[in-house]
Amino acid sequence: MRFLLTTVSFTLLALSSAQKGGMMCSFCMTIVANTQDAYGPAIVNTTDLELLRYFRKECPRYAVKSTMLAGECEYLVSEHPLVFFRDLRHGKSPLDTCTDCESC
Question: What domain count does the chain have?
Answer without folding.
Answer: 1
